[in-house]
Design goal:
Blueprint: E1 2-3, E2 11-12, H1 64-69, E3 73-74, H2 78-87, E4 88-95, E5 98-105, E6 111-115, E7 119-121, E8 124-126, E9 131-135, E10 145-152, E11 155-162, E12 172-173
Antiparallel strand pairs: 1-2, 2-12, 3-12, 4-5, 5-6, 7-8, 9-10, 10-11
C-alpha cells in the first residue's frame, strides 16, 4: 500500500484486485460480486436487483477486495474516491506501455498508478487504454447502478455505472 497523506489517513493499494503489477488491469467484477464473470449481462449479475445492500465495503460476501485480500482491505467509498481526486495531482501518462493516471500526493512524494482498464460489457472489453472505471463500495441507487470512479484524459469524476458491467477495483486499507 501507499500512504498518500490523505486527510482520512486511508492507504491505497499499488495495484488492482487480480493484478500483479501497478500497470496490469486485474480482474473485472459486476457490482457487489466477488468473482469475475465470463459474460457481463443483467442475467449474470446476482446483485442487479438488490436494493437493500447498504454500504458493502468490508463485507467479503459482496466486496471483492475484502474477499480476495482479506484483513482490512476493502473497496473505497465514493467519498474516499473523491478525497483521492481532490487531494492528489492526476497526470495522464503511461507505465510499461499502459495508459492511465499517475496519482501523486500533494503533501508528499508518494504516488500510485491507476491504469485505464476500461470495463466489460457482455463479452467485450471496452475503452481499455483510454478510460478507467473503478467500483466504489457505497450503497447503489435504485436504478440498478453502483457508484464508481470514471476517468480518461482530462476527465476525472465520481459517477454511477450499471451494476452488471465489469469494472476494476482498486482496494484501500485502513
Amino acid at each position: 500500500f501507499v500512504d498518500l497523506g490523505l486527510p482520512s489517513g486511508l492507504k491505497w493499494a499499488t495495484c488492482n484486485v487480480g493484478a500483479e503489477n501497478p500497470y496490469d488491469y486485474g480482474n473485472y467484477y459486476a457490482w457487489g460480486e466477488t468473482e469475475p464473470n465470463n459474460v457481463y449481462t443483467i442475467d449474470e449479475c446476482s446483485t442487479y436487483y438488490e436494493n437493500d445492500l447498504y454500504n458493502i465495503y468490508g463485507n467479503p460476501q459482496y466486496d471483492a477486495a475484502a474477499a480476495h485480500w482479506g484483513g482490512k482491505w476493502r473497496m473505497p467509498t465514493n467519498v474516499e474516491m473523491q478525497e483521492l481526486i481532490d487531494n492528489c495531482d492526476w497526470t495522464w501518462t503511461t507505465q510499461n506501455g499502459v495508459y492511465g493516471y499517475e496519482v501523486k500526493s500533494k503533501s508528499s512524494v508518494n504516488s500510485i498508478f491507476i491504469p485505464a482498464a476500461g470495463y466489460r460489457n457482455n463479452e467485450e472489453l471496452e475503452n481499455a487504454g483510454t478510460q478507467g472505471r473503478y467500483w466504489c463500495g457505497t450503497r447503489p441507487d435504485p436504478e440498478h447502478q453502483g457508484h464508481c470512479h470514471i476517468f480518461e484524459d482530462n476527465v476525472n469524476v465520481c459517477s454511477t455505472e450499471y451494476r452488471h458491467h465489469g469494472l476494476a477495483i482498486r482496494p484501500v486499507f485502513e
